[in-house]
């Protein structure tokens, strides 16, 4: 269900798993997050909200509220788990507000620097070079991104959740920026340079890594 605020013409999409989205609950979410949208003017175009309740009652923090805010090509995401859904909504509102404010301040600071020296704005984001062992194996090179994923729970091979979201073309620099504002150490995007789906991730030793499909026409590339 999509809820529209007539005053700000912004949209908040609310979905849920294992929870009945009552009118009062949806109104509560809308009232909370519309305050955040109004606070930052035209910076945020829309928000996706996903509410989930775990089946297992023994889990202490069963109620999860997840918010994804779309600020142009930048995606800002956070989530909160607690014993009560309304408490999760309250906390996720505060957290996404802080993330958007941090993003806005960084954007304004960058714009001021660009006005002083236009050439600075044209420079790409450069991650620091990392001294690595010469005998580092291929498995070691990608261990930092694989280790960040929770180990699979032995169960039937079944897709239990499917996410669909817009994926506009982004540069690697824009993807790195988005990766700083999500709650996981990786970010999936459509590379503007190639049109292919690519992934940037935070390396354990600092900097970012980039994973992208190989070019079948290139003769000097080695398979992973």
TrEMBL record:
Signal peptide: none
Taxonomic superkingdom: Eukaryota
Example GO BP: negative regulation of translational elongation
Domain (Sigma 54 modulation/S30EA ribosomal protein C-terminal) ranges: 157-210
Disulfide bond in keyword set: no
Keywords attached to this entry: Translation regulation
HAMAP family given in the database record: HPF
Protein's UniProt name: Ribosome hibernation promotion factor
């Amino acid at each position: 269900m999509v809820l529209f605020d007539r005053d700000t013409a912004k949209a908040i999409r609310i979905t849920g798993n294992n929870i009945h989205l009552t009118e009062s609950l949806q109104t509560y979410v809308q009232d909370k997050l519309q305050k955040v949208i109004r606070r930052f003017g035209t910076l945020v175009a829309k928000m996706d909200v996903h509410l989930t309740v775990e089946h297992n009652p023994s889990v202490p923090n069963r109620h999860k509220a997840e918010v994804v805010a779309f600020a142009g090509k930048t995606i800002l995401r956070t989530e909160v788990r607690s014993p009560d859904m309304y408490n999760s909504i309250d906390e996720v509102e505060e957290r996404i507000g802080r993330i958007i404010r941090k993003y806005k301040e960084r954007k304004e600071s960058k714009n001021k620097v660009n006005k002083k020296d236009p050439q600075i704005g044209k420079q790409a984001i450069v991650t620091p070079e990392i001294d690595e062992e010469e005998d580092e194996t291929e498995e070691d090179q990608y261990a930092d991104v694989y280790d960040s994923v929770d180990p699979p729970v032995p169960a039937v091979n079944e897709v239990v959740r499917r996410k669909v979201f817009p994926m506009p073309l982004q540069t690697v620099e824009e993807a790195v920026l988005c990766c700083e504002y999500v709650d996981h150490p990786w970010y999936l995007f459509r590379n503007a340079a190639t049109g292919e789906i690519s992934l940037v991730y935070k390396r354990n030793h600092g900097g970012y890594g980039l994973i992208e499909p190989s070019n079948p026409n290139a003769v000097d590339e080695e398979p992973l």
